[in-house]
Amino acid sequence: MKAQITIKDIAKALNISASTVSRALQDHPDISKTTKEAVNKYAKEHHYKPNAIALSLKMKRTNIIGVIVPEMVHHFFSSVFTGIEDTANARGFSVIVCQSSEDYEKEVKSINTLQSAHVCGVLASLSKNATNYDHYKELIEDDIPLVFFDRICPGLKTDRVVVDDYTGSYKAVEHLIKTGSKRIVFLSAPTNMEISKNRINGYMDALRAYKIQPNESLIVECDSRDKAIEMVPGLIDTLQPDAFFAINDETASGVLYAAKRKGLLVPEDLQVCGFGDGKVAKVSDPSLTTVEQNGYAMGVEACKMLLNRIEGGNDMKEVSHSVIRTNLIVRESTRKF
After folding, report:
1. What superfamily in CATH does domain 58-163+295-324 come from?
2. pTM to 2 decimals?
3. In the predicted model, what is the mean pLDDT of the chain?
């Protein structure tokens, strides 16, 4: 491996001091334009890279943030991560991403990995089976700034950015009711998750607002395409719904597949609505009516919140709570007014 050049190498080659090179690379106003151009030209030609370890020692931080997501393959989380990365890079920070794969033990190991990497802050979205939060408490006790996004831990005093799950759910169910459905099955994620609780509340309040008595037997834990394909045929037979509202688009796409195999027409016989507005919503046949979550905006907001905490001091007397608004996107899987 070819050795990387250093600031001292550039200084020797240009016959100037190392401190002048350092300030020229930082665009310091005391350094002449001619010197800056010469230093930057030489650095580029010889592939100079700043020493991250030396910089971190000087600044007393690594300028690296850690991100924990449940699944990168999920359109929503990949959109959130893009917002995080764009915002972090624009402010001179790098990002390490860990995927928990919806596994609590892997989530704990991810936190340990990020602590070992000496990240200066963490952005996290809980795995769906996480019920113990000691690993996050440890971050807080170590004075490492922590921001939760989307899937939060309500018991910890931290900054957080969430989607307006309640309103998104309410508007989706309201649309299904207004287009003729009364027996709406909600396919939910595990109910220990705040997003599930909020979306169930939105679902039930929309029913009540239109004088439809909520029926808890119509709330079924089913949060993946495979589970929907397996479970929906039986649910159609036993519950006799006229609509399905799914916790995410992948689950909704499984409903579409199962309905087709049952010989049902969507939306004529059965209306289907998802949550997320990922690519699957646009390419499904028929295309999915869904709730747009604005994942990129969530990533930008969460990263700004974390970087402001890192750069402005980690005083946790007051925490920030931001809500990302949702939009109902009406497509072919539901009827028109």
Report:
1. Response regulator (3.40.50.2300)
2. 0.81
3. 92
